[in-house]
Amino acid sequence: MKTKTKMIALVLTSMTILSIAMLPAISAKTTSLEVSYNQAQFQWRASAAEIGDWTYSYTEYETLSDFKLTGNVLHMDWEYSPDVEDLEGQSTVYVYNKKADLWIEKEGQVSYKYEPGYGDYQIVNFYRGYMEFNGEPSEESFVHGVAYQWVYLIAPEDADTALLPPYAEWDEKVGMWLVGFSIYLWDPTAPETPYDIEFPDPFIEPVPANNYNPLEL
What we know:
By secondary structure, the protein is mostly beta strands. Helix content is 2%, strand content 45%. It has an 8-stranded antiparallel barrel with strand order 2-4-5-7-8-10-11-13.
């Protein structure tokens, strides 16, 4: 269950089975599926420039995700390239929302260390987004997907800035240093007209986590 993301230097919960007295618990069937798609990414990293514009982007990259479908929940893992250390929380779930007819990601956090980019500091990623299928999830029914990624470095506000990426921004709401932000867009094939996404102004934050698609992409 992995989603592969292409980055420069550089997404499971358990189903609760409700049992009724004197009746056996019934678990939903689990189905594995693989979805191939075209990925576009728009990325800002504090190691490259001040916040306010993308530092790297691409619009055509063929990749895939492995999912497990259990009832109205899609399980998958975030995967990082280059490899990172002490990776935790990479499992995530998308839960079907009947009103929106979308599989909306349950906001969570992924943490790791990537010393070539951030030294010995722990990094936390916040993710938000959704997957859209035309009916039951499958590779054939996949329509579109979006993921928003915020990258934070865990260090005190008074940390030695010489040890931080040069354009790191202190975030009062989150209480960490913002060092990156990305938007991923997924489609069955590359759109005829390539995406042209402007850097969000005002900048959107991962908290409060009450909007799975703040830029309506």
